[in-house]
Design goal:
Distance between the termini: 44 Å
Strand order of the largest sheet: 1-2-3
Radius of gyration: 20 Å
CATH class of one domain: Alpha Beta
Largest sheet: 3 strands, mixed
Order of helices and strands: EHHEEHHH
CATH topology of one domain: YefM-like fold
CATH superfamily of one domain: YefM-like domain
Length: 78
């Protein structure tokens, strides 16, 4: 993850926005992180994950695993 000082973020705001489209960018003041700038797509992805929403592909893999290993899970639960 790239990092910019708060002064650089202010002076190079357009560049900061462009950088955030490809990966989150840390904004630092006196060497401490004070903000993370990210694309709306990344924010939505993280928000969904935090809310417990899982991608359909991950859910499918989980369901298949649960069916495949059901007997093992039941034995371990005893």
């Amino acid at each position: 993850m790239k990092a910019l000082s708060a002064s650089d973020a202010e002076n190079r705001f357009a560049e900061l926005i462009d950088m955030a489209q490809s990966e989150p960018v840390r904004v630092q003041r006196q060497g401490q992180d004070v903000a993370i700038v990210m694309s709306p797509e990344e924010f939505r992805r993280i928000s969904k994950a935090a809310a417990g929403q899982v991608s359909p592909a991950a859910k499918k893999l989980h369901d298949e695993s649960a069916m495949r290993w059901a007997k093992v899970y039941e034995t371990l639960a005893k």
